[in-house]
Design goal:
With 344 residues, the chain is an alpha/beta fold. The chain has 16 helices and nine strands. Helix 9 packs across helix 10.
Length: 344
């Protein structure tokens, strides 16, 4: 699919500011939509939905039909890579993901070096279906989890409040931890390239847990693996447009941008606007950074928060988004309010 000038989202990633910033929302295919809940009930489990190409394509398209966003993001999960590596991955209702923990070097030795990408064929099929159904002006985003964030789940076997198990393992057994990271880097490169091949126009690397790392560990476990993924993808797809999202990185964002070579960074809602404008947006496009809670609150508070994002970032290259995923209890009317305000 040619990256034509007709996609405002891709234009921003290519260096062209848009007078009305293109917009989409992280987790835009999700439980706040009644049509999503209907499909989810039909699909059975969460992974059943991810690996049913027709249903995954349908829920990817639902927010585009309803809101006319400038980008769709394929419905999937960051833990499909451990699944393709042969790890047990389960999603318990109300409890999130459960994996068999890789919490000591002996267990790390059992990790397969290569993913079985045949297991991820449904994701590629869903991408093809979505790209075929989308208006040519709307971009399709593929994604993966950053190695650090995916590793935190693999080590602990589940999400934890501050990902202490992975942090502890990285301190105690850095060689074993680096093995997990290396496997994730190699396989994430292949996975992202396959998503581009299947019709994705841009890619996002989600490093949800980057913010729990001290600066030196952030450089080692967040920045460096992301840099290797970007380099690996660009070796085969030189024009690939890639967004990084090291959530909570704050003052470390300029170093992340410099080292990784991403085309844009997604900011959470705690980012300091003047700092981001001067040290980040002067180099790359920025994406974000409305607080998902103010989207639930609505009313005058939402209008003010939207105006703040636009006042702070719309003079430069901006993709309007949330600072993290939309929450299930968000009223649809508030999403409509946001779109109307951003698009004027």
């Amino acid at each position: 699919m040619p990256q034509s000038a007709k996609m405002p989202f891709i234009d921003v990633l290519s260096g062209q500011r848009q007078s009305i910033p293109p917009m989409w929302m992280m987790r835009q295919a999700g439980r706040y939509l009644p049509e999503y809940r209907e499909v989810r009930a039909k699909a059975g489990g969460f992974l059943d939905l991810c690996f049913n190409p027709e249903l995954a394509a349908e829920v990817t398209l639902q927010p585009i039909r309803r809101f006319g966003f400038d980008a769709a993001i394929i419905f999937s999960d960051i833990l499909v890579i451990p699944y393709a590596l042969g790890r047990s991955v389960r999603f318990e209702v109300g409890e999130g993901p459960r994996l068999d923990p890789l919490d000591d070097p002996a267990k790390v030795a059992t990790l397969s070096p290569r993913a079985d990408f045949g297991k991820l064929e449904p994701v590629f099929q869903a991408l093809k279906l979505v790209r075929g159904a989308l208006d040519p002006k709307i971009a399709l985003i593929g994604f993966c989890g950053a190695p650090w964030t995916v590793a935190t789940y693999m080590v602990a076997g589940q999400g934890t409040p501050d990902q202490a198990p992975a942090r502890m393992m990285a301190y105690r057994h850095p060689e074993a931890f680096a093995e997990i990271i290396d496997v994730l880097v190699e396989n994430s490169v292949q996975y992202l390239l396959a998503q581009l091949e299947a019709g994705a126009n841009a890619l996002q690397i989600f490093d949800t847990w980057a913010g729990v790392l001290p600066p030196a560990e952030f450089a080692r476990w967040s920045v460096e693996p992301t840099r290797r993924i970007v380099e690996g993808v660009r070796a085969k797809a030189p024009d690939a447009k890639i967004i990084g999202f090291p959530r909570g990185a704050g003052a470390l964002l300029p170093a992340y941008v410099e080292a990784t070579g991403v085309n844009a960074v997604s900011m959470d809602w705690t980012a300091e606007p003047a700092f981001i404008r001067d040290h980040v947006q002067s180099k790359v496009a920025v994406q974000g950074n409305l607080d998902p809670l103010v989207l639930i609150a609505g009313g005058a508070a939402l209008d003010r928060a939207i105006d703040d994002v636009l006042a702070n970032f719309a003079q430069g290259r901006l993709i309007f988004n949330l600072g993290h995923g939309i929450q299930p209890e968000t009223p649809i009317a508030h999403v409509e309010q946001m779109i109307k305000r951003v698009r004027g």
